[in-house]
Write the structure tokens for this entry.
Amino acid sequence: MAEINCPYCNGRNVLKISYAYRGVNKKKNKKIDYSKYLKEGTIFMPKVRFEKYDFDGEKIKYAKLDNRYCVDCDKKFCSIRNLATVDIRKVTLVIETKTSRKKYIFDLYNEPTYFFIKNYILVKEEMIDDSVVYELLSAIKNNKVNLWAGHYGNWKNFNNIKWILKLEYYNGITDCKSGCDSFPDNWDVFIGMILKKFIIKLD
């Protein structure tokens, strides 16, 4: 199994969490020796009532409990891939033609910040408010970006435009979509929500 780093402190002293262990082996009528499991990299925690809500307040039907525990910073996190939109911490959009390259970065961690980089030169950096974050996450959720294919088109046949959309989640997992002169069916709707509502204004 690949080594997992804590997304909060980058520590490697991470244990697997096992829930709903009562602590007693009923067949043998004696307490479980947790120490041997701890040596194997597992920590036991009581299962709690768990509900998770997305950024827009919608209850997430298939939310997963945290499955990892960092000993160094005493925090729990989830290492699985199927996370919700609310778990996104950074969005990067790159649009490249034969004459220019524009990169839009939305860093949503702690104090949300927007970066605009044109032809590898930082043009703008500024704080963004909650309404911009909400619109950005709405565009991602409503257009079901997570269901897009990994790549559209053929990199070898670059005629007009290349694009990359990278979503980075709080636990370090990255979901990357890209294309070359080809786009998902709802690309125009998605890019319209992104560009028209705030990228053009911020540029």
Q: What stands out?
A: The two ends are 44 Å apart (CA to CA).
